[in-house]
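Running this now, will post back.
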Amino acid sequence: MSHLPPLARFGGRVASGLLDVTDDPAALDSTGFWAVCADYEGRLTCARFADVHTEPVPAPVPGRWRGPGPQDWTSSLDRAAYTAAVVRIREHIAAGEVYQANLCRVLSAPVAPGADVDALTALLARGNPAPYAGTIRLPGHGVEIATASPELFLRRDGTVVESGPIKGTGRTEADLLDKDRAENVMIVDLVRNDLGRVCATGSVTVPELCTVEKHPGLVHLVSTVRGELRAGAGWPRLLAAAFPPGSVTGAPKPSALRIIEALETAPRGPYCGAIGWVDADRGTGELAVGIRTFWLDRSAAAGATLRFGTGAGITWGSDPEREWRETELKAARLLAIASGTYDASREES
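Update: finished.
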């Protein structure tokens, strides 16, 4: 186990002085500032901190992060297995069982026992800035995460809730296909349905549909879904209605979850879960979808393993090789940063 102190960092906000940890989502409607991590499989960790202050992400310190070698990464699904799984999902679609399913793989590599996810966050902040970047470091509770997530899962301000599902990825806007836009609309409908379970009738709207957002090395199609929570609906009901995020599961969600479980060979963990913060005193919070996310696994006696997930949304219009390449595109820059091979000077301005 790491001997580093518990810490949470989200943008320019840093929390320290751990008070308590719980898996009860009702705590998020109590008092205090909470760091939140919900694994895709459902494990929830809520950590309340005593001290919260503003502090910029520190500059990377040479040698502070020692990542794996670029050749050390292994994938839970190799190219052949992944493309075969895409074909299988298309068969489920042809059979009318599902319209879309998100197929993911988990990459793993050994790292030094003293590896610190906050040091990796400093590197990510320079090499892959993201709107929902952050660290949650709770070594005593099995949570050590560095995320560069570009995707909003749930934002709450009082009774107003908002989600920003991403579906559709390319190197440039010209790479986006009709398939990407259709997929985005499918997931927007799913998110509208999820929020509609806890929001006032008629309050769920879509202020933005299929907006192109530019991120380091790629572009995404992003939509916004917004609603007003019903009286008495707090974090427990909101998470129960919306989790796991629709953009990383599929539609219909129950069918997609069943298909994903049958085809994927490794647990997703924090990847595709929810990562963020809740200020219970102010009734605000912001949880990102746990994509573009690294986490440390210290469960094996041999030492620490760094993990990273990547995936793609599969529809009837999917080409297996193109979906594999999308998973590579999403992972390449971040793996290079973690492995120390990323060179910003080689990128086009």
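The chain has one domain: 7-341. More later if anyone needs it.
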